[in-house]
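Dock magnesium ion; give full complex structure.
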Amino acid sequence: MKLGIIGKPQSGKTTVFNAASGHQESVGDYSQAVHRAVIRVPDERVDTLARLLSPQKVVYAEIEFLDAPGFTGKGKDASAPEISPDLKLMDALVPVLDCFSPNPNPAKDVRDLLDEMILADQVIVESNIEKKSRKIKLTGDKAGAKELELLESCRAALDDGKLLIDLDFREDQDKILRGYTFLTRKPLLLVMNIAENDIEKGDLCIEQIARFIVPGECDAAVLFGKMEMELLALEPGDREIFMKDLGISSPAVVKVIRKSYSLLGLISFITVAGPEVRAWTIRNGTVAQKAAGTVHTDMERGFIRAEVIKYDDFVKYETLAAIKAAGKAHLEGKDYIVQDGDVIQFRFNI
Ligand SMILES: Nc1nc2c(ncn2[C@@H]2O[C@H](COP(=O)(O)OP(=O)(O)O)[C@@H](O)[C@H]2O)c(=O)[nH]1
Ligand SMILES: [Mg+2]
């Protein structure tokens, strides 16, 4: 999964990036540098299985963060923002909202960001409409005419101030639009970046942006960017004590990842294959044969069965032998819908 951190200048993007990744990029300097980090997804189920099975290798799922400056915070008055091209490749965007300065206005900040995203998409739509029209005139291309019509409907929606994620497209249209990697089709996780001495501000700011929240499209999380970044300098034990004192239930990175998974409809399953315990990320609703394909294309092609053990049974019985003796290893066919936390061994033959 790839998450793009965006926001107006000085909203705490790089601070939150540091808090999530453990990097130490400089903050407060209006830098337009793009930062990137790949971090492993903390997963206590993997931790537990690693403890029970003592494998030679433990591999966590990974997530990429991109700290992407380029938005101006000027909303409609902005000219098209200078957005890092990599931002288009992100699965979701994480707007960081300044809720730490004396009179924050996160609702306005969200509106301004949305307007800039719309502006960026309008630029893409315009240039492609122009290119397509020219080509159709030259070649009389029928498929092109359909795509042109689709782009024109996108233009109309954007001109109306709508986000493309709010429109309903057919499967075939969706497929075409995916190629354009529009910003306003990406789900958003709004991060309320609040000051260390101002816990109550979190609820207040959430209230202010509540109207933007739509299941599967936009969610919000509250965190203390600066303090969490600073806490990373402490030893893990001390950090936990501090966090407890401050009423922080889970670290920024855990909150952001958890909410992003649910926003994007993602789950994890775990494979235990000989010497390796490994977590994989898939979309909720993925069938066993497809899930096998995330591990290896051969496993999907030669799929026979999936042997599925519920994570809780692993914790209860502790060894593979005891699980099997208790009849808790279930053989499932290719259409079995993989559940979050399933521990799977794929049987395949090529
Ligand atoms: N008090 C406070 N200051 C913050 C917080 N997050 C960021 N800042 C400050 O805001 C300024 C801008 O932060 P930075 O991460 O560089 O913002 P960016 O321009 O969005 O990348 C810096 O001086 C930070 O120390 C926060 O949670 N609390
Ligand atoms: Mg920055």
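Observed: Residues 2-42+61-108+185-263 form a domain with the Rossmann fold fold (CATH 3.40.50.300).
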